[in-house]
Amino acid sequence: MRAAEAAVRIGDGRVVGELRVGVPFREGPPLMSSAPTGVRRRHPGVQVTLAATHDGTGADEVRRGHLDLVIMSRFGADAGTAETGLHQVAVGRDPLRLCVPDHHRLAGATECPVSELSAEPWVLGPATPLGRLILGLCAVAGFEPSIAATVPDVAAALGLVDAGWGVTIAPALTPAGRDGCGLRRIPLCGVDVFRHHVLLMRAGEERSPSIAAVVAAVQSAGTEGLS
């Protein structure tokens, strides 16, 4: 029996069960990582186990049964649709921002076109969904970025940007860590692309009471902190 196959306890209506939830601890906004905590408070009969995941593998981990639910990101003008066999719930989005250190020539800019960044050193992960998006934005702007540092995730990229290693593009709500207070996040001109926050689960399991409880908690967090 899958962990997501929870039930409502007969007689008192309590939701009980076990859930394995994948969370992008170093990539998503903090409110998405903390949302499952609300499930533990509201439904103490649901045992939630968190596992670190990322956008490149989350869907496959759910499909293979390693996780029951993942919180992940999709980049684009809209959230797109779930792959065959999966069910998707969109819970919010945040815009992309140019990220520069506070001493950068563009630190005081109110907005910036990508074409203005052709001579900049870049910090990104070329194999990640966000990294591929950045490469595509640069190509549309007419240049190939000079990569000063290759990183595994956006949190690492922001750390190096804060240290003055280069620039990057990141979703507005991505946490920068303790040393990221000097970062400047600048709106991009002409970029109609967002990070969409979605929940992925196996098709049909959205009716599980325990999964429905997590979906409700994350949707509530999204209403409070995302557009």
Structure, briefly:
The protein has helices at residues 30-42, 58-63, 129-140, 154-162, 209-225; strands at residues 7-8, 15-23, 46-52, 69-76, 86-101, 121-124, 146-150, 168-171, 183-187, 194-202.
Shape: elongated
CATH T-level topology of the largest domain: D-Maltodextrin-Binding Protein, domain 2
- In CATH terms, the superfamily of the largest domain is Periplasmic binding protein-like II
Radius of gyration based on Cα positions: 19 Å
Examine the secondary-structure arrangement and name the CATH architecture of the largest domain: 3-Layer(aba) Sandwich
Break the fold down into its secondary structure elements and pairings:
Elements: E1 7-8, E2 15-23, H1 30-42, E3 46-52, H2 58-63, E4 69-76, E5 86-101, E6 121-124, H3 129-140, E7 146-150, H4 154-162, E8 168-171, E9 183-187, E10 194-202, H5 209-225
Parallel strand pairs: 2-3, 2-4, 6-7
Antiparallel strand pairs: 1-2, 4-10, 5-8, 5-9, 5-10
How does this structure look, described?
25% of the residues lie in helices and 30% in strands. It is built from five helices and ten strands. The radius of gyration is 19 Å and the shape is elongated. Strands 1, 2, 3, 4, 5, 8, 9 and 10 form an eight-stranded mixed beta sheet that branches. Strands 6-7 form a two-stranded parallel sheet. The protein has 227 residues and is α/β, with parallel strands linked by helices. Helix 1 (30-42) crosses helix 5 (209-225). The model is unreliable at 3-11 (pLDDT under 50). The protein folds into two domains: 7-93 and 195-225, Periplasmic binding protein-like II (D-Maltodextrin-Binding Protein, domain 2, 3-Layer(aba) Sandwich); 94-187, Periplasmic binding protein-like II (D-Maltodextrin-Binding Protein, domain 2, 3-Layer(aba) Sandwich).
